[in-house]
Amino acid sequence: MDDAHRVVAAYWAAAEARDWDTFAGLLAEQVVYEGPQTRERVRGRAAYLRFNAEGFPGEWHLTVQRIVGQGPHAASWIEMSEAGERYPGLCFFDLDADGKIARITDFWPGPCELPASRAHLVERY
Amino acid sequence: MDDAHRVVAAYWAAAEARDWDTFAGLLAEQVVYEGPQTRERVRGRAAYLRFNAEGFPGEWHLTVQRIVGQGPHAASWIEMSEAGERYPGLCFFDLDADGKIARITDFWPGPCELPASRAHLVERY
To answer: How far apart are the CA of B22 and the nearest CA of chain A, in angstroms?
Structure first.
């Protein structure tokens, strides 16, 4: 088993470099991607490569804030920047027995209003 | 250093049980909580306990989907359920040298529309 932290670091480095060959080499043939917020799913390495290479054509750049790996599981928090905007992305990864990424679950939380019910319990930044 | 996975599992078990004494015992005195979506911040164990005990009075329940721990870092993905709704919560944790939770960054991604630009590249579920 490869180290999940190292695999996810390589995944994000390859995405940032648009190095789709290296990116593909990290994926299991039967990789499944899910985005629960939109309820979108992509199955298989070829479809997932196309999704990444064609689905996000903008001039985005990412920086890794945290990667945590344990056994076959990892999580990452990245900051994406595009057209002067910055927003966080959170991903959970499961690796297969060969150390390839077999499952990716991806979250992109947007800004939202602070509920009045807890406004007296926090500060703002 | 305590194991970060174990500490975060205990954190969520205590939250689900509303066992605020156990919850407090897992926190560093100078714990800092941040919610980047609302840009809210809470500093210190006493304020953070009050934030949790008073800020979320509903009949919520949580189930852990993933916890990943590595050294002093951990990430969790939980599903929260309340009033028939279910929604995911993602947290990143940093522990101090005593194994206490010193930093929590919390994300609650809501549902959103699938961009038309990648609709041909995914299936829906």
So the answer is: 21
